[in-house]
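Researcher: We're teaching a course module on how sequence relates to structure. For the next exercise, students receive a sequence and then see the predicted structure as tokens, so they can try to spot secondary structure elements on their own. Here is the exercise chain.
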Amino acid sequence: MDNPEILGELDVRFVQPYEAHKAYVCPGCNRDIPPRTHHVVVVPVDAPDLRRHWHKGCWERRRPSS
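Model: And here is the predicted structure for the students to work with:
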């Protein structure tokens, strides 16, 4: 999802390398986020099951909301 803002208010959390124990796929670039990699978790407040893990750079470069 390029524009998670459409889901409403977001809770953005930074994950430190020592906290990252699993691999994820970044929705911004569709590439792996390996374990022990600093990244961002974005959780829609009204839909926490739709949380996604993003590379920090992909999150910062995502499409702005319209």
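Model: If you want an answer key for the exercise: The chain has a mean pLDDT of 89. Residues 13 and 29 are 19 Å apart (CA to CA).
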